[in-house]
Amino acid sequence: MPVVVQNISRAELEVVNGFVGIGVATVHEAQGRTGLMASHMRPIWPRARVAGTAVTVELPPGDNWMIHVAAEQCQEGDILVAAPTSPCDTGYFGELLATSLASRGVRGLVIEAGCRDVAELAEMKFPVWSKAVSAQGTVKETVANVNVPLICAGALVHPGDVIVADDDGVVVVPRKKAEEVLQKSKDREAKEEKTRARLKAGELGLDIYGFRDKLKAKGLTWTDD
Amino acid sequence: MPVVVQNISRAELEVVNGFVGIGVATVHEAQGRTGLMASHMRPIWPRARVAGTAVTVELPPGDNWMIHVAAEQCQEGDILVAAPTSPCDTGYFGELLATSLASRGVRGLVIEAGCRDVAELAEMKFPVWSKAVSAQGTVKETVANVNVPLICAGALVHPGDVIVADDDGVVVVPRKKAEEVLQKSKDREAKEEKTRARLKAGELGLDIYGFRDKLKAKGLTWTDD
Amino acid sequence: MPVVVQNISRAELEVVNGFVGIGVATVHEAQGRTGLMASHMRPIWPRARVAGTAVTVELPPGDNWMIHVAAEQCQEGDILVAAPTSPCDTGYFGELLATSLASRGVRGLVIEAGCRDVAELAEMKFPVWSKAVSAQGTVKETVANVNVPLICAGALVHPGDVIVADDDGVVVVPRKKAEEVLQKSKDREAKEEKTRARLKAGELGLDIYGFRDKLKAKGLTWTDD
Amino acid sequence: MPVVVQNISRAELEVVNGFVGIGVATVHEAQGRTGLMASHMRPIWPRARVAGTAVTVELPPGDNWMIHVAAEQCQEGDILVAAPTSPCDTGYFGELLATSLASRGVRGLVIEAGCRDVAELAEMKFPVWSKAVSAQGTVKETVANVNVPLICAGALVHPGDVIVADDDGVVVVPRKKAEEVLQKSKDREAKEEKTRARLKAGELGLDIYGFRDKLKAKGLTWTDD
Amino acid sequence: MPVVVQNISRAELEVVNGFVGIGVATVHEAQGRTGLMASHMRPIWPRARVAGTAVTVELPPGDNWMIHVAAEQCQEGDILVAAPTSPCDTGYFGELLATSLASRGVRGLVIEAGCRDVAELAEMKFPVWSKAVSAQGTVKETVANVNVPLICAGALVHPGDVIVADDDGVVVVPRKKAEEVLQKSKDREAKEEKTRARLKAGELGLDIYGFRDKLKAKGLTWTDD
Amino acid sequence: MPVVVQNISRAELEVVNGFVGIGVATVHEAQGRTGLMASHMRPIWPRARVAGTAVTVELPPGDNWMIHVAAEQCQEGDILVAAPTSPCDTGYFGELLATSLASRGVRGLVIEAGCRDVAELAEMKFPVWSKAVSAQGTVKETVANVNVPLICAGALVHPGDVIVADDDGVVVVPRKKAEEVLQKSKDREAKEEKTRARLKAGELGLDIYGFRDKLKAKGLTWTDD
Hints:
Chain A has 225 residues and is α/β, with parallel strands linked by helices.
């Protein structure tokens, strides 16, 4: 029977907030290239960038009832992560639900399905990553789970995990690894800052990373036209 | 034999204009969730929002001749609705045709195919909803029907019907139902305004809509982590 | 064995620069509707518009090593054209590589695969046309060819060819035809300017192009509703 | 409110049976290239070939309740035509429902969604044209219309229309045109039989259809390598 | 660092063999509609039907080295489950690898990527469920994990889980639930056998399941044409 | 202006016939993994397997006129390779055209578009590799090139090249390399025959290819569960 799990353990908000401003690609690299959602998850307006803690909700196809149930489980700093139990692009979410979530301090929605009221959501600055935009409405007939682990766009999400999302997509950081991954992300950013300066000055990656010998060893040759 | 139907009956412009500013999702709901085009119909520039009367045109694949024919049938307040007779993403429409349509007071184009000159169309503020963007050119060889009922992106469109389009997609309102649907759309907006205020104040949909008992009756249970 | 071809012949930069500001659709028409890449090649930020000379690079799936190799072959005015040897949407390219390319005067990237760091690339104004956006990282293990002819998004590209790209997509102009195609593109623009003025004034394409008789000869008839 | 229309008018079974064995492509041509469903409608087992009268049913996403309702409206010679109200590939139909339909003389199913129990349906020789194969189950919660006109895979279907389906796809023949289209289909087959014999004997379409002059007039030229 | 986990715990072969001949749809229902892979996983030849224990392998894009590593971990009764770390349709698997796996008693392959040598595999009766067929070859450069939990086509697979696959797709049964799910599957089959007999005799699902009152309560009405 | 090139140079038929029975994957490997068409090119009936010389034809979207023109250029041993100038899935080809081509000794069709009359073509044993099956008809209005180099499904094809196709897809062998590639394909087959015997006997690829040390050097480790 479907269940709503209350009082989930969340990654610490201080750690979560550390991810704000760090790119999804950096986080994905920092945790060993894991946790990335499929590339069909796109922001509905450009330049959105958030980090928050996952509240998860399963959605029966064409039925958004459980989003209302999940809303009650959301608190400041959360991101709602919604996955249909069967692929469906219906418009499960619009500006009324966003108003409700925003009033609770929810930072955004990640939904492997459709979203509507895009213009209003952009104006509200409520960020959504979705698989589709669709005005198609939903019913409220079937119950499903809230705050159980689920797979969204090919990534496993546990309630309370950290979600980081930007123009590049969405990545999931397991709750217990959040602090470690944050540190590694920052280390990576620091290292990239140095590389960036050298590249900007005209040095080549070939030289910075010492690739020339390895390339030759692999059989690459240079010739003139 | 292909035919161009002239002097079609159109929804009254005063009614049509009432739809400007009302969202596609609202109109779709107000008319019982009918008339929505498929979600692959996307605006070529964000925040476009129009309502107008349909002039319909069938397009042979890779052939945009009939758009020129349809242009003559267009008048102030119209939206051209174009559907290829066989799926094809060629760029049937660009800024020259938009200039022609705009000079006649046409408010936009809905085409289940490709569009080109996107930068110029965005600068002109000529809105287009299309299935693809493609620079690929077309020929002018084959005739087809203008102002006959057709299916565009899965929706049945009769000439003179109301077309409403925004970031969420495109919806068709049958001409004879336009006034009724407009009223229902406005009623819906008024009702949503009240709900929005309550949600913004932190009330939950669960309570506003009285969902709790129904959820329990369906077997949903709440538990702690 | 894979080879890096150096000192390729490029279209003259003066000619190449003539293409800046001319639309992809115009160039495609001017050269007889050839050389257009598939419509899944989309700009990662709107209104980007470039012309440059092609440096080509083959990419093994999920492996961006050769982009570093290709960078060394790039010079002022170039556009890097990258095609995976097997379809793959991995994020081969981000802002570090863009910094490197930009420092060498490279004008953009055309890649039939994934790109990441979209927000940063948009801020840098480094234009990219890609098939996907993906934060997924790559390895550096396998060598492949640089500056050999390749097929990118269905178009044949020789090193040194002219690449023109805008919101409508990407078109390839063979190096030896660049001057001729530029002239024809300008002629076409001039001609369109005149047509545009007539259309804006309300004349119909039907009359400007003299279509009426041909349409009737094909069997098209006009009727009243 | 949703309605089940009973006692619909059907095309005459004698006429319908005349379509058995005539190809979908032939019927589509014979009625002026109209009524064809989208090419994503594929048979779940090869060489199935049927003609029957349409009973139509709307399906809420992920909900197959109405198929049970529609079953009661079916009789000898019918084909059930099912379209979800929002795109959804769930497996709405399997061998139990097929057993029920077959017991009533239903000849097949056309569904723009998912089907399951493919092996069993193939063994039963119950033909299905669907958009997907999926084992995913459905709920029984939401009511919808039976025997109202609907759009299935881009084609408008009225209850009682003739449905013809084979390896090439599915075509709809309006009930009132069935007799005329059948005659034209047979005429076309007779004509093609003659052409086939000439082509088999080595004559060229160029000569049989007299294309050479027209091709030259269009500017085609022949040259040696 | 990547790891190969040896000596995994597997579901008991006796239980696993009980699933042979039970349909994927039945198993999916019996375990509460969980564990189903996405519907793009299709058998490369029809009527294949297997049950076995999962050995899991991650595949870098375009690199099939780890299949060789995984082969050593396979034993009688296993099914190899392979997922690329980044979406890629390359042909990772052909008849040589199948020969190797078959010699170890492996019952089939489930791969969310491409497969080749389809004709040979069909002749060998080696079953494969894949996302694509592609002759494109792979490299052997990058290591990855074997026998760790992974997500394949949207389903979470642990090493040793039961995999059941047929024409309808692929379902995963968690190792520890295998016996329970098998029993429920058989119960379901027994129950369906009775329903099937009634449906075959012409009884309607409407009556067998007692739907009429519920449908009326939902507002469904019956009317004559 | 469009041109029909006559009397093209073809690969020698004796060499071409040597490819019959050699798999597409083998040929693709033997020529350095080049020349493979995209994996969306699928046979319309299973187990078809051909080799022949390419006659190439460009197709305007929705227009199959040039297939008739190309037919005259075909001779014993040819395979017709057809690519639309703009993506289009219309059914350009059916059994009448197949009858014509077969009467001239043509061995099959490769078309990056739609095909119809699938049942009839399967019965005739006329093999077709296509991107889609569609009953949708075409017009005969626009001329295009025959026997010029073209890109079909991402592969460059010159008239007279060798085409090899089977269940795995389609590969192009340049005319001048045909003999060399045939020899390499046979060498590869001979080598694989030996490997197959060892794999069948239970030896592992890990040992046959000596992978163990390289895997360890890359950091792969083995552990117990």
